[in-house]
Write a structure and sequence with these properties.
single chain, mainly alpha, 0% strand
Length: 160
């Protein structure tokens, strides 16, 4: 593993760890805090969070890490990366499927449903309960996948 691949691996592991931390905070206390608010306030707060999340800091962290994952996966497949390459492929797969795939395929559609929900409507309580249960379940998966990817990327240099 060259110095440049090692540096990219470190940056990717840190990006995965950063994503895991974001997801952990939502799973550990943010969603619980929102659930303690009256329904309309909880919905409004999460709608606001979702609007402000779609900005460069989070998008660069999530999708920049995905680009690094892809780059390392290509390196692993084209360079006879050996055991480090296997760890890089595992980390890339965990992040791309477990974080990016789940985010785009499951969490974002739930966010879109919540965005359309009127916090003061008769359907608000049921919609909020459904949103929380589903969104948190997928968020737990994203957090676990990001953490496992960080571990895989961290293990790769040690097996070189």
């Amino acid at each position: 593993m060259s110095d440049s691949v090692w540096a990219l691996t470190l940056a990717t592991a840190l990006g995965c760890g950063l994503a895991a931390g974001v997801f952990f905070s939502f799973s550990a206390f943010v969603m619980e805090g929102l659930a303690r608010l009256p329904t309309g306030q909880g919905i409004s707060a999460m709608q606001s969070i979702n609007r402000t999340a779609v900005r460069p800091p989070l998008l660069i962290a999530l999708f920049g890490t995905a680009v690094l994952c892809l780059g390392l996966a290509v390196w692993a497949l084209t360079s006879s990366g050996g055991r480090p390459g296997a760890w890089l492929l595992a980390g890339g797969g965990l992040y791309l499927v477990g974080v990016i795939g789940v985010t785009i395929g499951l969490n974002v559609p739930l966010n879109d449903e919540l965005a359309a929900l009127d916090p003061e409507s008769a359907e608000a309580a049921g919609g909020w309960a459904h949103y929380q249960a589903s969104w948190i379940r997928w968020n737990h998966l994203r957090g676990a996948a990001a953490l496992a990817a960080a571990a895989a990327f961290s293990a790769a240099p040690a097996t070189a």
